[in-house]
Task: inverse folding
C-alpha cells in the first residue's frame, strides 16, 4: 500500500449532524501525515488526540477540537488518502446523509498523488479491549483484513456481519451505510442540548423499530458500525491487517484499540 495525498484541494460543506450549524472542511494536499487545522491550531490525526465522547469521535488539542471525525476518516481510508491537511470551519465536520459516501465522492474530485510506501502494523499476537456489558474488540494477526461484527440493540435487535474488507468492497457495501438513532435516544439528546439538527435526512431516525427512510441494506445498522470502526482506526498511522472481532463495540472501544495499536509503532 502506497501513501498518497490529493492532487488538488476539495471543499466539503454542509450542516453539522449534532449542531445543525453550517460547517466546511477543505481537504488539501500535504507532504506528511493527516491533520486537521482549526483556528490556526494543528490537530494531528492520531489516537493520542482522541477526546472521549459517547456519541461520536472527537480529535482535539490546545483547546480546539474537531467533532465527528469517523465518517470523513473512513472516506479517506477508502480513497487511499493518508496524507492531507483538513481545514475546518464550524463546530463540527459537515454531515451529508449520515453515510461516508458523499464525502468519498468529494475526495475523488481531488485526484490521488502517490508518495512513499505506507508502513504496516506488525502484530505479535492478539490485542483485546473490553468493557462491561460483554462488549469487546479484538484483533489477531492475519494477512489482509477480516472483520466479524456483532451488533445488538434493545430496540433494533441483533445484526451480524462477517466479511473480508477491502477498499474496493467498501465503496459499494459499506460507505453508503448511514448513521442511525432511535426516537427515544434522539429525544434524550435534544433534552441534553446535544442534538439540534432537525432534518431527518441527516441520519436514519428509528421510530418503533421502523426507519424513517428505506434501508440501503437489510443489515445497514451493523454496516454503519463497521464504517465507524474503520474510521476510528484510521487514526493509527499505519496499514492495519488482521482478523478483527467486535461484539457490541462502539466508539469507546474503537478508540481504546486504536491507542493500543498506535503505541506498538
Result:
Amino acid at each position: 500500500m502506497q501513501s498518497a495525498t490529493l492532487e488538488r484541494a476539495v471543499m466539503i460543506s454542509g450542516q453539522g449532524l449534532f449542531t445543525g450549524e453550517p460547517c466546511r472542511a477543505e481537504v488539501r494536499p500535504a507532504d506528511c501525515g493527516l491533520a486537521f487545522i482549526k483556528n490556526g491550531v494543528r490537530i494531528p490525526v492520531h489516537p493520542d488526540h482522541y477526546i472521549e465522547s459517547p456519541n461520536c469521535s472527537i480529535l482535539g488539542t490546545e483547546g480546539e477540537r474537531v467533532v465527528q471525525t469517523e465518517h470523513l476518516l473512513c472516506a479517506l481510508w477508502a480513497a487511499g488518502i493518508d496524507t492531507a491537511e483538513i481545514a475546518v470551519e464550524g463546530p463540527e465536520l459537515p454531515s451529508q446523509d449520515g453515510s461516508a459516501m458523499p464525502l468519498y465522492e468529494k475526495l475523488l474530485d481531488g485526484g490521488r498523488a502517490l508518495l512513499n510506501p505506507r508502513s504496516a502494523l506488525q502484530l505479535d499476537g492478539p490485542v483485546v479491549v473490553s468493557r462491561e456489558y460483554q462488549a469487546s474488540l479484538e484483533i489477531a494477526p492475519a494477512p489482509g483484513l477480516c472483520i466479524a461484527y456483532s451488533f445488538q440493540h434493545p430496540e433494533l435487535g441483533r445484526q451480524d456481519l462477517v466479511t473480508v474488507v477491502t477498499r474496493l468492497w467498501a465503496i459499494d457495501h459499506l460507505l453508503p451505510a448511514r448513521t442511525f438513532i432511535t426516537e427515544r435516544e434522539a429525544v434524550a439528546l435534544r433534552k441534553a442540548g446535544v442534538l439540534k439538527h432537525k432534518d431527518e435526512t441527516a441520519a436514519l431516525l428509528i421510530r418503533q423499530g421502523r426507519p424513517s427512510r428505506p434501508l440501503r441494506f437489510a443489515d445497514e445498522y451493523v454496516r454503519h458500525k463497521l464504517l465507524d470502526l474503520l474510521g476510528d482506526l484510521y487514526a493509527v498511522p499505519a496499514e492495519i491487517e488482521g482478523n478483527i472481532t467486535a461484539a457490541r463495540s462502539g466508539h469507546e472501544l474503537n478508540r481504546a484499540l486504536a491507542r493500543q495499536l498506535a503505541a506498538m509503532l
Q: What stands out?
A: The two ends are 17 Å apart (CA to CA).
